Write the structure tokens for this entry.
Amino acid sequence: MDDLKGHRIVIPVALAGRGYDVTIESGCVLHGFAIQAREFLAQYRPRTGTNPRKVPFVADENSHRLFGEAIETSLESQNCAAEWFVVEPGEGAKSWGVLEPLTDWLLELGVTRSDHVFALGGGVVGDLTGFACAVTKRGCGFVQIPTTLLAQVDSSVGGKTAINTRAGKNLIGAFHQPSAVLIDPLVLDSLPDREMRAGFAEVLKYGLLGDAEFFAWLEANGSKVLAREPEALAHAIATSIRAKARIVAEDERETNGVRALLNLGHTFGHALEAETGFSDRLLHGEAVALGMVLAARYSARRGELEAARADQAAATVAAAGLPSEISQLGLACDGNALADHMRHDKKMEGGTLPFLLLKGIGKAYLAHDVELADIAVFLDQELRPGTVPIA
């Protein structure tokens, strides 16, 4: 990807009075921060607190090991130093047990409401850091530096922050927009292939929910994106972010139904994650990929999507090396157990749960008439292929 080093794409997220930019610049992190990125850091480094020359970074162990030295070198050139709070990789970091010492650490550093905390890592680090900043002194600033494809194209943009609880995923959180997002596609060269595929699921989501042309492009070029070919990867990232930025600008807090489109595959996916214990057994992106296939098949069951289009979605997911059949997970449960997980979904209101379904490739919509009993029957059939459908 070195041929794109120094090339910048700036995508604005237009929010009334609180807009911010997503900057995509190859090499800005991996190569010790380009000049533009150094200026970027200088803009958001602390100017108050107990030691304004200390820049607070929250990172997972992998991101700290891979990119910490480059960041420290960049800060030293500005007569600053990084102060690190490092967490273990994985969903376990999104917990009360990590949130408390993190907020204590921020307070000990003297972080004020005008300061910024940098989140370096995947979606877990971004969610955790964002929520910690949302509640510390009723809101301090933070900057996202996502290091996974999933975080770059989805979770780093939009302001949803949260931790997990025993009751379910992301049930304790806040809307807290970052002040900026800095993306370096080059960091993805160090990403394991499985994590890359998991992030690609969120890229596919943007095509399925509202852009048939982009979905067709991904069918033809998905292998190039997964192989990290520079032009294809840059196009996939930028197109995904532009799509999310448009939706977030129209419905920041998910109040008019537009932003709900971004949950395509997530209701099914979160239930699968819960059943597998929010573990590495099923990564979030893998759950979303399978969830999108299930949403397509359930849409076909309702007669709202051609079966051929549901098969097309499943084939594209499978071609990317992502799970497209529940049987691949080896779950020891039935459809009722999976449906029960959905009862804890944070979108549940008045005893009903809206579902993101499809009327075509690129034509997602929010259904309010779905009964969880019917979902349980459908999932039973998916868990046991070959059973006779129940009318």
Remarks:
- The domain at 193-383 is CATH 1.20.1090.10 (Dehydroquinate synthase-like, alpha domain).
- The chain is about 45% helix and 15% strand.
- The longest strand covers residues 168-175.
- Residues 103 and 132 are 6 Å apart (CA to CA).
